[in-house]
Amino acid sequence: MKVEDVNRCQIQEWYPRFKLVSIRTFIHELPESFVQYLLDDSGPFLLPVSISNEDAFPNRIHNPEEKEDYQVSEGSGDEAEPLSPPSLPELELKIKESIETLGGAIFPKLNWSAPKDSAWISTWEELEQKPR
Questions:
Q1: Cα(43)–Cα(81) distance, rounded to whole angstroms?
Q2: Taking the CB of residue 92, how many other CB atoms lie within 10 A of it?
Q3: pLDDT confidence of 63, banded at 50, 70, 90?
Q4: Is the N or the C terminus of the chain less surrounded, counting Cβ atoms within 10 Å?
């Protein structure tokens, strides 16, 4: 199987052809700055700041006595720069608009959640092509 074959399975590749027989879908491209933030593993992952101040997990139980689930290590004597989560106002507005247009309830569909998730499509159930 070739890389092009696997790439054809991405939703933005097949949806235009099958949208008449598929559920209504909006495709949002992530800003490059956010993709880089997701790829950066130098610190804790912080959820983006919402422009509408909405809690990303409104149903969670808040326990004020719980400690933070991560610790920021101090630099080498220098004052450590406080971590600031990203802000993606344009993307947030587009997504909110899409949710409203779709009736207020959605489920996200990603290209692949992880590379291993796409292995099922390979005839040999691996990501690397075997020599012939």
A1: 12
A2: 16
A3: low
A4: C
Residue 73 pLDDT exceeds 80:
no
Q: Where are the domains of the chain?
A: 1-31+105-124
Please list the alpha-helical segments (H only) found in the chain: 3-7, 11-18, 32-39, 89-101
Split at pLDDT 50, 70, 90, the class of 68 is low
**What is the model's pTM?**
0.62
Question: How many angstroms separate the CA atoms of 125 and 119, rounded?
Answer: 5
Q: How far is Cα 67 from Cα 63, in angstroms, rounded to an integer?
A: 9
Compute and round to an integer the Cα radius of gyration of the chain: 20
| DSSP secondary structure string for all residues of 77-108 | SSPPPPP---B-HHHHHHHHHHHHHTTS----
Q: Contact, 54 vs 64, CB < 8 A?
A: no
